[in-house]
């Protein structure tokens, strides 16, 4: 073999070795990311994801999931945006939209949807909506996404009507008609179950995560609650990640994991059917 041929052969071998080494390290890096995903959750969602982390479905997907519990959504979204948390599971689509509007330099992205956890109307004094007196005081959550959500629920049961431009972040100023002259008191959503027992409050609207923690079942204990239809799609819960990770294939596997048949059977039993599965494309939320 000539010196030139030997040089070409050695050069080709070197290139092949470098490509093999690159492929190895790239695969190792991919393997590492696929095995370790930190999911942040609030309230009952943490319990669901702790089960998912130990599930056979997670093992088959090759994912090692660590669940970290947070007490409030704002800090969890911020931790997700800065990369401390990879994916979070706690918020409705409307809550996500509100967060992105006020945190434009650290936006999040939707990976997929999970369930509708109905908001309910509760009362410690009355057993039917028709019993609510004129001039009753109704407590509603004070964060924009849930304020709007509460007012939409009241409108859906014909207690009030809303202006035509009412949106996912609208408030009481966008009420068109209030025929019963209800008074609205805005409260921290976490205090809803305690407010229900306040004799000065006639009814209170509570999200189901908070209701569950207080031993309330929205399907059984509320005077009325949300249904799954186009009017409540903003209230569907999502999995969210930092905007830069929106195309991460490993993170997207979490959506399929949530909707796994065995996982859903556990969730239905553990939460008494109050986390109503919604398995639709992300486009469903925006169309």
Automatic annotation (TrEMBL):
It is a lipid-anchor. InterPro entries: Lipoprotein_NlpA. It is found in: Membrane. Residues 1-29 form the signal peptide. Keywords: Lipoprotein, Membrane, Palmitate, Signal. PANTHER family: D-METHIONINE-BINDING LIPOPROTEIN METQ (PTHR30429), LIPOPROTEIN (PTHR30429:SF3). It comes from the Bacteria. This is Periplasmic component/surface antigen (NlpA). Belongs to the NlpA lipoprotein family.
């Amino acid at each position: 073999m000539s010196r030139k041929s030997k040089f070409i052969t050695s050069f080709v071998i070197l290139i092949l070795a470098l490509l093999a080494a690159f492929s190895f390290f790239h695969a190792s890096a991919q393997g590492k990311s696929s095995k370790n995903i930190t999911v942040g959750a609030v309230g009952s969602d943490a319990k669901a994801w702790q089960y998912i982390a130990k599930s056979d479905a997670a093992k088959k997907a090759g994912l090692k999931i660590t669940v970290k519990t947070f007490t409030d959504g704002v800090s969890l979204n911020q931790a997700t945006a800065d990369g401390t948390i990879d994916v979070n599971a706690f918020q409705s689509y409307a809550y996500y939209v509100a967060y992105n509007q006020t945190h434009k330099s650290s936006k999040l992205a939707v990976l997929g949807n999970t369930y509708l956890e109905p908001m309910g109307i509760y009362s410690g004094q009355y057993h039917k909506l028709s019993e609510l007196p004129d001039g009753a005081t109704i407590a509603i959550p004070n964060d924009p996404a849930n304020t709007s959500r509460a007012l939409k629920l009241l409108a859906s049961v014909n207690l009030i009507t809303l202006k035509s431009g009412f949106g996912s972040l609208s408030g009481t100023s966008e009420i068109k008609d209030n025929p019963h002259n209800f008074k609205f008191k805005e409260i921290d959503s976490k205090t809803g179950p305690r407010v229900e027992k306040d004799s000065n409050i006639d009814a209170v609207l509570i999200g189901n995560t908070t209701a569950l923690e207080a031993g309330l079942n929205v399907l059984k204990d509320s005077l009325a609650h949300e249904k799954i239809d186009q009017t409540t799609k903003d209230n569907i819960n999502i999995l969210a990640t930092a905007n830069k990770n929106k195309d991460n294939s490993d993170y997207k596997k979490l959506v399929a994991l949530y909707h796994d048949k065995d996982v859903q059977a556990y969730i239905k039993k553990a939460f008494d059917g109050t986390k109503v599965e919604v398995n639709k494309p992300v486009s469903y939320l925006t169309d």
